[in-house]
Design goal:
By secondary structure, this protein is α/β, with parallel strands linked by helices. The protein has eleven helices and 16 strands. Bound molecules: aspartic acid.
């Protein structure tokens, strides 16, 4: 049999980001420029590993991706899986990669691996990491052991679960970390080695509504309540607060939480960047016991940004009643 026919089939969708950025106008900095074909041209060895189908879905800095665009990306990825691709890889900017990964993970119903990667250095910089990350992402997508693990983030030879990974450094090559949980796996000399067994997964249907808005506000020392008071009036349907420490706010904010939680779901997460919110440790006004009595839900380990993604998806599916169950598992 022809060897080419035996190669695994992998689909790559390019969304933009540093991995695809080049200087178009000297002195003006890099912008998304490289199509999926140009990305593939930087990595000729992929052709020996897999039969690649590549498509440019967007050419955007990841800060400008929207939920609506991501639903289309999801539908594209689903169609690739349905056509029998062994794995699907997305390349995108690292700035919002953790949110995109979690968003897609909530909605990914297949055991086919969906891998997201990017780069911290653009192709024009010395030591650009894009080609190595793309190669690693394809290797992870091809691995039998990656089946049933949902959406995985592959950068710097580490494999992270979408739920836990965060960008924790603005510029470093080792910019992604999954505090406490650690990476789910590693690439060792190109071999995929998982450190944890896959966990049971539940996915949500594609949201029917796309116009819902969920606010995310961060608690900060001495902050007034004006923005908080306006959340319902401005038409938001959910609120996430990145609270102090284990999930706390000031007494003034706590009063607003009580009013707001009568009108919409309110989640309090931790702004610290690692660790879980408390449930029954602190008894002061604005502490987690008080906030729960005032109607807020505590986020557990889920970071504020992913709480916002979860709430947006649940509202879009008309399933916000399931919020506390989703959070209690986090
Ligand atoms: N610095 C970003 C990146 O790593 C830019 C972006 O997120 O698009 O790709």
């Amino acid at each position: 049999m022809n060897e080419v026919l035996q190669l695994p089939r992998i689909a790559i969708g390019a969304l933009g980001g540093t991995v695809s950025m080049k200087v178009k106008t000297p002195g003006e900095g890099v912008t998304p420029s490289l199509s999926s074909d140009a990305l593939l041209a930087s990595l000729p060895q992929l052709a020996d590993l897999a039969l690649i189908t590549a498509q440019t879905l967007h050419l955007l800095p990841s800060a400008s991706l929207t939920f609506v665009q991501l639903i289309d990306v999801l539908l594209w990825a689903k169609s690739q899986a349905e056509q029998g691709m062994q794995g699907v890889v997305l390349t995108q900017g690292t700035d919002t990669l953790e949110e995109v990964a979690y968003f897609l993970d909530l909605l990914w119903p297949y055991s086919t691996p969906l891998i997201i990667t990017g780069a911290m250095r653009s192709p024009s910089q010395a030591g650009a990491d894009g080609p190595a990350n793309l190669l690693a992402a394809v290797q992870v997508a091809m691995a039998e052991e990656s089946q049933g693990r949902g959406v995985l983030v592959v950068l710097n030879d580490q494999i992270h679960a979408a739920e836990h990974v965060r960008k924790v450094d603005s510029m470093a090559m080792a910019a992604f970390s999954s505090a406490y949980f650690g990476p789910d796996g590693l690439l060792v000399e190109g071999r995929v080695r998982y450190l944890n067994a896959p966990k049971p997964r539940v996915s949500l249907p594609v949201p029917e509504r796309l116009d819902q808005r969920v606010a995310l506000l961060e608690a900060s020392l001495g902050a007034d309540t004006s923005l908080l008071e306006d959340v319902a009036g401005l038409g938001y349907e959910g609120l996430v607060i990145a609270g102090f420490g284990a999930g706390h706010v000031s007494q003034e904010w706590a009063r607003c939480v009580q009013q707001t939680s009568q009108r919409m779901p309110v989640i309090v997460a931790s702004r610290t960047g690692a660790g879980a919110t408390a449930l029954h440790a602190y008894g002061f006004s604005g502490g987690e016991i008080d906030l729960q009595r005032k109607g807020a839900l505590m986020a557990g380990f889920l970071c504020p940004r992913k709480c916002r993604v979860l709430l947006w998806v649940l509202i879009g599916c008309g399933r916000e009643g399931e919020l506390s169950r989703w959070l209690s598992q986090r």
